[in-house]
Amino acid sequence: MRLRLGLLERDLAERFRISVSSVSEIIRAWIKFMKTELHHLCIVWPSKEQLQFYMPPMFKQLYPDLVSIIDCTEIRMETPSSLDKQSICYSSYKSHTTMKALVGITPNGAISFVSALYSGSISDPEIIEKSGFLNYVHKGDLIMADKGFLIQDQLAGVGARLVTPNFLSDKGQFTWKETEHNKKIASLRIHVERNLERLKNWHLFDRTVPISTSGIASDAWTVVACLSNFWPPIISE
């Protein structure tokens, strides 16, 4: 009820006729327990053989070496009272204090990587390195991301490649080849955006996260990602 519906602790205390502090203790204990038990069971980086076996035909045809489609998402958080913490958590993209996470999905739509929640000011290259994502990537792997991900150097360090939409050149318009390339990537990247939407449909994260919850927010985010992998596939064969 806390994760899925986003009900406040005071509301839950009244519903179950216990104290607010008891509700808080129960939620914190169970989220930490569920994260420990579910993370390595539900968020799994598949082998190359598994990726190829379950890869939808459209990916096999266009990007057979693709192992992960990645994107970052930001969750609004209550503004800290400390000016230093405000600066660290402030996201220029959202114009608000946020927490930021990196999520990766397999070509067939399963969440295969989810990072902890970091402060909103972290850059994409920093989150790629700090989250441990590069530990799963190997030579010859292909990673798909939005054009804002300037992580070619990080991936090149492990022998992997990046595919993104083309930037608009000084000519003012895309060539026919660039347009077709962008359309193909957009049609495939939509699946990671649909997965992120699924995660934010857990109503704990579709509103501003209070400071009092920030201590378990990362664990709760991981639990939500784990539970979302039990839902029906977002990509049909």
Strand content: 5-15%
What are the secondary-structure elements, in order, as H or E? HHHHEHEEEEHEHEHH
Count of strand segments: 7
Radius of gyration: 19 Å
- The number of helical segments is 9
Query: Segments where pLDDT lies below 50 for 5+ residues?
Result: none
Characterise the protein shown here.
- The mean pLDDT is about 90.
- A hairpin with a 5-residue loop joins strand 3 (about 95-105) and strand 4.
- Strands 1, 2, 3, 4, 5, 6 and 7 form a 7-stranded mixed beta sheet that branches.
- About 45% of the residues lie in helices and about 15% in strands.
- With about 240 residues, it is of the alpha/beta class.
For this entry, give a set of tags.
single chain; 237 residues; alpha/beta; 7-stranded mixed sheet; 43% helix; 15% strand
How are the SSEs placed, and which strands pair?
Blueprint (H helix, E strand, L loop, with lengths): L8 H8 L3 H23 L5 H7 L2 H6 L3 E11 L6 H7 E2 L4 E10 L5 E4 L3 E2 L4 H7 L11 E3 L7 H5 L4 E3 L12 H25 L13 H15 L9
Parallel strand pairs: 1-6, 6-7
Antiparallel strand pairs: 1-3, 2-3, 3-4, 3-5
Helix pairs in contact: 1-2, 2-9
